[in-house]
Amino acid sequence: MFGEMCAAVATAFGSEQFRAVLGHFCSGITVITGVGEKGEPIGFTCQSFTSVSLDPPLVAVCPSFASNTYRQLRDTGRFCVNILGDDQHDLSNRFATSGVERFVEVDWSSSPHGAPVLDRSIAWIDCELELEHRAGDHFVVIARVLDLGLTHDADVRRPLLYYKGGYHRLQPL
């Protein structure tokens, strides 16, 4: 009965309404980075990111099923989550655009496990893929945290936020 109710509700609205309603939920912006098959840095923007577990330390990301970059990262089994600051919306746009050289004029260093850590990201989380599940037009990826860190100015910078289809800044109450 529950499955039948969900199926009936799911057909009562369109994808535009779904996007508009869920756009009222604010999320942070990350860039997921790794190393491609030829040793080149690769990455993509991902706003679907969350912590999952403290013990063991696990996070989740939800890349698009159509993402070729994610498929390359999946093959290596390792990636780094870079949490962007509110002054990095151009970087978010670059890594969200297909067919461009994403790392041209982008400064980065290697994480302890070899994935790119983008300069001036607020924080980074080195991960190893643990579980992947296809969910509609996206994957739900659970990853074990191998290492993590904050940048030197993480305490004074604010995260880049996405809300109602655009970038925003956090304002304290």
The tally of structural domains comes to 1
> What kind of assembly state do the chains in view correspond to?
single chain
What's the total helix number? 4
Total beta strands: 12
What is the ordering of alpha helices and beta strands?
Answer: HHEEEEEHEHEEEEEE
What kind of sheet is the major sheet? 7 strands, antiparallel
Q: What would you give as the CATH superfamily?
A: Electron Transport, Fmn-binding Protein, Chain A
CATH C-level label: Mainly Beta
Give the structure's gist in a few sentences.
This protein is of the alpha+beta class and 173 residues long. The chain has helices at residues 2-10, 15-22, 68-76, 89-96, and strands at 27-28, 30-35, 41-46, 49-53, 58-61, 78-83, 108-110, 116-118, 123-135, 138-150, 160-163, 166-169.
Write the topology of this structure.
Blueprint: H1 2-10, H2 15-22, E1 27-28, E2 30-35, E3 41-46, E4 49-53, E5 58-61, H3 68-76, E6 78-83, H4 89-96, E7 108-110, E8 116-118, E9 123-135, E10 138-150, E11 160-163, E12 166-169
Antiparallel strand pairs: 1-11, 2-3, 2-6, 4-5, 5-10, 6-9, 7-8, 9-10, 11-12
